[in-house]
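stage 2 :: seqdesign
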């Protein structure tokens, strides 16, 4: 599962903390605001299901709901169908938007729930009786692990990072070169996200102190843009304070 979404207006990528930081405090509004173009856009949750004893499906998406919208929609369902509807496997197909948002939300707040088993139960029942006997009503263990979108939270170890000024300059120059080759298409890739992703891949997520990284990136970014800000866009700015709080309050996400 991933909440990384593309803005429908400028095509920039929106990440989970950016989406949460710009949600509207309204229970009927599905939009967030893109940090790059500052326009409303509907974020998506995207799922890819894999496993030995369940049918294979192409990735699919549902709207990513803010907690106020999710609560309102869930209360409507429970009022009409009763509390026990959450224990029935048919809930997955009858209310897919609510279901997948609940699965994601429980993972983000690090609370165990029976909800993933509802999906596994409905899909294993579609297989042969032999596979069903092997997997059981609770579903396949491997598939259950795949459904979990986040890793166990660990306290990150402080890792000294190399100076970020040169990587900022190099990535900006490379992006500008590619932009000229593509006949001036808009810049959609965040240099901040590129460097963070590469650091996590190279050193390991548990070996990086995100707070230290953000401080160093912020210092390097403002140092570079003092002299030349033409190569940098809004998506390259350091993470906002609100997005930082969103990241701190929820269970850390894992890299694929």
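stage 2 :: out
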């Amino acid at each position: 599962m991933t909440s990384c979404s593309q803005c429908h207006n400028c095509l920039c990528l929106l990440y989970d903390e950016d989406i949460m930081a710009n949600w509207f405090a309204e229970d009927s509004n599905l939009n967030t605001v893109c940090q790059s173009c500052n326009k409303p856009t509907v974020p998506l949750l995207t799922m890819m299901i894999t496993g030995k004893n369940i049918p294979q499906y192409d990735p699919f998406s549902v709207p990513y709901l803010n907690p106020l919208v999710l609560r309102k929609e869930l209360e409507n369902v429970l009022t009409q169908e009763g509390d026990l509807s959450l224990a029935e496997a048919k809930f997955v197909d009858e209310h897919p938007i609510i279901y997948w948002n609940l699965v994601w939300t429980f993972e983000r707040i690090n609370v165990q729930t029976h909800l993933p088993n509802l999906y596994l139960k409905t899909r294993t029942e579609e297989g042969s009786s032999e596979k069903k006997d092997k997997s059981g009503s609770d579903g396949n263990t491997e598939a259950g692990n795949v459904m979990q979108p986040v890793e166990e939270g660990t306290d990150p170890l402080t890792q000294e990072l190399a100076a970020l000024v040169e990587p900022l300059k190099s990535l900006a120059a490379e992006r500008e070169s590619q932009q000229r080759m593509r006949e001036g298409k808009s810049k959609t890739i965040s240099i901040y996200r590129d460097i963070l992703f590469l650091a996590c891949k190279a050193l390991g997520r548990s070996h990086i102190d995100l707070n230290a990284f953000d401080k160093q990136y912020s210092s390097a970014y403002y140092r570079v843009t003092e002299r030349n800000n033409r190569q940098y866009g809004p998506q390259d700015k350091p993470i906002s304070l609100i997005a930082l709080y969103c990241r701190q309050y929820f269970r850390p996400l894992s890299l694929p």
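stage 3 :: structure notes
- The CA atoms of residues 174 and 180 lie 10 Å apart.
- Confidence is low (pLDDT under 50) at residues 128-132, 134-162.
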